[in-house]
Design a protein that fits this description.
This protein has three helices and four strands. With 74 residues, the protein is of the alpha+beta class. The longest helix has 16 residues.
């Protein structure tokens, strides 16, 4: 478990993430993190949950209509 301290950044409050945690998240300075409420608490992820949901829907449509899309591509 990592402990992180809140710190003042300009007029805001921020948290400094340790290098090990950044490596696990595969993010670096300038990347976006998304905070989502879960039953277990707050989850930080580099993946946009809305975009992921849209991609799942698109993949379902592509799977269902594969033959039609193949014909359209010709």
């Amino acid at each position: 478990m990592n402990t992180m301290k809140l710190t003042t950044i300009g007029n805001s409050v921020g948290v400094v993430l340790p290098k090990e945690l950044l490596a696990k998240l595969r993010v670096s300075k300038g990347d976006l993190l998304y905070a989502t409420d879960t039953p277990m608490g707050i989850e930080l992820t580099p993946y946009d949950p809305v975009f992921s949901h849209h991609m799942e829907l698109a993949e379902d449509i592509m799977r269902e209509d594969r033959n039609v899309l193949k014909k359209l591509a010709q």
